[in-house]
Design a protein that fits this description.
Number of domains: 2
Shape: globular
Largest sheet: 5 strands, parallel
CATH superfamily of the largest domain: Cobalamin-binding domain
Structural class: alpha/beta
Bound molecules: cobalamin
Radius of gyration: 17 Å
CATH architecture of the largest domain: 3-Layer(aba) Sandwich
Strand order of the largest sheet: 2-1-3-4-5
Strand content: 5-15%
CATH class of the largest domain: Alpha Beta
Order of helices and strands: HHHHEHEHEHEHEH
Number of strands: 5
Distance between the termini: 40 Å
Length: about 210
């Protein structure tokens, strides 16, 4: 009998979750389908946290379990593509330390042949600008999970425009709290809350 992954994750049943992920990967299930189910579990945890039913310790337990499952899933996301199809700079903006979704998207993007320069989390505006200047990426990606991350993204995009660099680069925003409204506010070219859709958008940006 198969385990309800979102529910098992949201109630921290580590053995059940890890066994189920192993079983499905051995059965050649699409790894991104598993990620989506785990993401649903994280959404439940977030909703319970919003309602005050869960506390920070529960957020941390779920994040830890999610990270452990990703260690199993990530090797399966690595494609066989060796040709580089484009360059990307990505980071989580200043004030935001969430990295799980960013790291999933990076695994997917690398697997598809992108050269990814990961700036990490809590990244100041200046560090994004420096990286764009040095790496000269095709794409700048932001991963944002809290609302305070919106303003720094907007400042990066505005500064690129002031320097005359905005037209040379595509900007994409991802992360659970983002929306079409956030895309407009930041001045990005695209937005998504799904790594696979994000990859399709990035591929289209580089004509692949
Ligand atoms: C896990 C978690 C944590 C963990 C983070 C661990 C870590 N290492 O990342 C911990 C416990 C540390 C944490 C801390 C906090 N958190 Co928190 N957290 C979450 C939680 C439950 C899940 C986030 C997550 O990992 N989701 C799973 C991933 C896979 O989804 P995802 O990030 O959306 O990524 C997917 C896509 O969006 C996409 N993607 C992601 N990035 C990118 C980038 C690009 C370019 C592309 C194309 C695609 C892409 O790909 C991924 C796969 O499909 C969310 C609730 C939620 N519903 O999201 C709250 C949540 C984000 N946290 C929240 C809050 C408030 C906090 C704290 C302030 C709590 C506190 N009082 O201290 C702190 C903030 C610390 C800080 N300064 O950043 C709020 C934010 C509310 C808001 N509107 O701003 C949320 C929404 C919970 C809630 N409902 O209130 N948190």
């Amino acid at each position: 009998m198969s385990t309800n992954l979102p529910e098992a994750l949201a109630t921290f049943k580590a053995d059940l979750v890890l066994d189920e992920v192993h079983r499905r990967l051995d059965g050649d299930e699409d790894p991104m389908a598993i990620v989506r189910e785990l993401q649903d579990g994280m959404k439940t945890v977030g909703d319970l946290f919003s309602k005050g039913d869960y506390f920070l310790s529960e957020l941390m337990m779920s994040a830890d379990l999610f990270t452990r499952t990703m260690a199993l899933i990530e090797p399966k996301l690595d494609g066989l593509v060796k040709e580089t199809i484009g360059k990307m700079v990505i980071g989580t903006p200043k004030g935001d330390i969430h990295n799980i979704g960013k790291d999933i998207f990076i695994a997917v993007a690398k697997g598809a042949g992108f050269e990814v320069h990961d700036l990490g989390v809590d990244v100041p505006v200046e560090k994004f600008l420096e990286a764009v200047d040095q790496v000269k990426p095709d794409i700048l990606g932001f991963s944002a999970l809290i609302t305070t991350a919106f303003e720094p993204m907007k400042v990066v995009v505005e500064t690129l425009a002031e320097k005359g660099l905005r037209d040379n680069i595509k900007v994409i925003v991802g992360g659970g709290v983002t929306s079409a409204t956030v895309k407009e506010y930041v001045g990005a070219d695209a937005q998504t809350i799904d790594a696979v859709q994000g990859l399709d958008l990035c591929r289209s940006f580089v004509g692949k």
